[in-house]
Amino acid sequence: MAASTEAPEPWYLALLGFAEHFRTSSPPKIRLCVHCLQAVFQFKPPPRVEARTHLQLGSVLYRHTKNSELAQTHLEKAWFISQQISQFEDVKFEAASILSEFYCQQNLVDSAKPVLRKAIQISQQTPYWHCRLLFQLAQLHALEKDLVSACDLLGVGAEYARVMGSEYTRALFLLSKGMLLLMERKLSEVHPLLTLCGTIVENWQGNPIQKESLRVFFLVLQVTHYLDAGQVKSVKPCLKQLQQCIQTISTLHDDEILPTNPAALFHWLPKEHMCVLVYLVTVMHSMQAGYLEKAQKYTDKALMQLEKLKMLDSSPILSTFQVILLEHIIMCRLVTGHKATALQEISQVCQLCQLSPRLFTNHAAQLHTLLGLYCISVNCMDNAEAQFTAALQMTTHQELWTFIVTNLASVYIREGNRHQELYSLLERINPDHNFPVSSHCLRAAAFYIRGLLSFFQGRYNEAKRFLRETLKMSNAEDLNRLTACSLVLLGHIFFVLGNHRESNNMVVPAMQLASKIPDMSVQLWSSALLKDLNKACGNTMDAHEAAQMHQNFSQQLLQDHIAACSLPEHNLISWTDGLPPGQFQPQNGPTTSLASLL
After folding, report:
1. In this structure, is residue 111 part of a structural domain?
2. Cβ atoms within 10 Å, residue 236
3. What is the pLDDT of residues 12-48, one digit of tens each?
4. How far apart are the first and last CA of the chain?
5. Which domain holds residue 67?
């Protein structure tokens, strides 16, 4: 009753004490807590006590029970009554904030917006709540994909924080706006905004943990911007700074001294969440660069940390981190020849998405894309086409769309009889003309796809031109997998043309790079070429050694192929619509051929 000038009644203190005791019991006794709070109304309490009790009841029912109707009634009463009372800001704005959160959870977004707008309008003299409510309404618009409205609100928040003298909160608003502009691909607006943010962060002198957390936010945006652009080499200095920054944060003790400016009572993410996020962007970088063992190491660390955090924290962002980590490690597994493990991890992503409709909405396209990549790896080309087609219908994200189209084109090339569909796709990802995205990596991959098609059509000079373009681009940004694939395909072309020396100059470094990644398919391809090359050149011993290597890779891939196709989760390749299936029927055995691999 801090807001009241009168001492609270003993009966009120007693009931409140009992309610809190039951709420914090182990396990919580929510029914008894609710009974105690409801008993307050029997005493015909004054409006302040009535409003606060409605808020407490609404919060408890919303957080701990499924009685949404009663929770809504109490929260609406708390918001209505508190608006009639002057100098009652904490209850008033907490009621608005929780009621809006409740409406969003019930998919009543149109009811949440006016509550937040009214609360923002009347909270300008209460800096903490004004900033918090602006963040909340901006987040609501962002979840609805109305990024323009969200950015406008964050801009309003940044200016308000500047007027209130909080450069820290101003930076939080601006960095949040930068994040949304990156999502919208408004790069001309992002660059000056990030430059301004960098200056604010470096000049701000305050709580060391708050300063370092701002630097982490700023560097995460920079790193993801580079990775989105496929610039794996250029990002390294920023990524190194980010990793050093998170090490600094982990050595700092949480400062118990709260900021004196109420507009600065915010933090971006808890320290532990930031650690997982840095692991995540490191995994993204390692996967794009083709350091797959490093990606595996950091994924293991991040998932272990996530498991610990999820025991104590139900924050939805942790499940999002987990899904993104799994998406990246699944792609790594498919490259390293661990298809059975990849399939089980795809099933794990399905289970996480079943628990959260929002997670499924945001990751359905990625899930079908992963299944498409798995189908390619087990030579189920019809299923791969169906999965990629489903994914294309579910995404508006330009980079993901381009990635899917590139892989679908590779399926059509392998099938060899889909010329019309193939040429239609290739027109849309022409690396020489109006390429749909600015990603260096995806443009290099588009040149590779053109080279692959020219190779299959026997147009070897044209193939060499495309592949040399891929090599030039992949070498510039350390894209190891594309480099290895281009080298082995060039080696194959020179072998077909009878230029054995030049073929050897391509295949040997391809094999070395593929072993370093490690990329099982390129190793298989390279060893087959080395066997034929050495045989043609009369190097019997080297030919025998290459044949033995090829046999070993073939056996490993065959065993993994059989293991994957025998799993009940293999049935996921037929799922293209609606929510992922919860149960899988066991397989009788592999139903696909390994002929194309071996």
Report:
1. yes
2. 15
3. 889 989 998 888 888 889 999 999 999 998 888 899 9
4. 76
5. 19-144
